[in-house]
């Protein structure tokens, strides 16, 4: 008997080593063979297309305000608002793209279709420069661009926004899907995947704001558009070639339906008393096959628990999910509701980050950009310092701080996710203070020598604010990415990445609104803080305002974060959760 059990156990282990049983499928719709699918042989294709997308995006985004003021001849205020609107749309559309990926199309198809739309936008961007009837002007010196050029240009960049909307939330989740969380070795490799993901992203960003921007500044905007279009086309082809190596997951249907079911069931049972023992709440029986992980009961938002109360009517009939929900579904609803205060409390951070691709870049354009042997740095290339700051931040955090903090706190992450985000917010305040001081000094140069202006001031004066914002991003942006991926229900991974992106998108819209409001208030007070150009503006005062807002918001964030309950996943059995409702961070991968 014992030998029979041992042989059966060995066979199960061998079977699990050969096949992947985590709900994944291969390209033919069968259970994937572990040796020929997933892990690095698949995820490197994903990293490659992320590299090219970031190169294209930052090549366009970092110099967009320069294009709008130089080629479109927009004033500073109009150009800044246009950039904020575009950036806002680009980072909010992923909410729709993530929903479609999780509910209907699946992640691979979403990445494929959105990348094609992205490529169409890049091709149209090339046409806006090379097709004679779409060009800004027929003459070399262009004082006012044609209306048709403005229309084609904005249609092109908003097509890129739509493409990003599906690409960003689905691609990273698809890459993580290539690793089996239930397999020890693959689980370790999954942590390395996120490091390589960030490496590919930062490399694409660095090349976008250096090589691509240099071509824009010293060759032509059209040639730069051809470069990013070619890179995107090649990487899309590489992504498609890797199709046989991928592990796929079927879309699970709308993630909103289960949450609506919980709400309806809770309202229907609003008069039911809470059971004295949470173990009496309904959960999927162990004998039934469960897709995804089960969650433990928590004490917050107890009204929703009524959806899992087993009533006499539920016992008498086969209950509908609209009348009886599992504890896991109730807890997933709580997870989503708990995200809202954190999301709102991070918006001022998004507003501060928005300045790095608008006013910070425009500041650089007015300063002395000659750094060595007559080499002139393109204004948008200064953004490379932010990428360097972020790479340094992530490296120092991972290699130096985490080992020390693990020994000090006993937490496998070193510090919890929300603490990491909060530290980055402190850096965003420091960024605005540094930017205000530098802008005040720049305006002093302009006042002392109106003819030469700030051209006698080195662009390297901007290095502190870019490095600080990049260093802070290594804490807050990476923390937000991890937070929204980890703390959403398992069926909403793509939407989780979209929630993270929406912080930056909404921050851009809030920034645009604040610019409009401050412009109106200060204009009525005598002189607007936002003039025709930087030299007639008072950006230093605007930066001080943002620093004060960010500091006040940090207090709100700390208050909210201290009361947050992390996802608590069942590790052994349903009964083991109850009576042990720790507000931990959930499982460490």
Automatic annotation (TrEMBL):
Subcellular location: Membrane
Keyword Nuclease: no
Keyword Metal-binding: no
Coiled coil: none
SUPFAM superfamilies listed in its UniProt record: MFS general substrate transporter
InterPro entries linked to this entry: MFS_trans_sf, NRT1/PTR, POT_fam, PTR2_symporter_CS
UniProt keyword list: Membrane, Phosphoprotein, Transmembrane, Transmembrane helix
Signal sequence region: none
Membrane topology label: Multi-pass membrane protein
GO CC aspect terms: membrane
TM region(s), chain numbering: 85-105, 112-131, 192-215, 221-241, 335-356, 376-397, 417-438, 458-485, 497-522, 542-561
GO MF annotations in UniProt: dipeptide transmembrane transporter activity; tripeptide transmembrane transporter activity
Primary location group: membrane
Pfam family, one: PTR2
Family: Belongs to the major facilitator superfamily. Proton-dependent oligopeptide transporter (POT/PTR) (TC 2.A.17) family.
Name of this protein: Protein NRT1/ PTR FAMILY 5.6-like
Species per Swiss-Prot/TrEMBL record: Pyrus ussuriensis x Pyrus communis
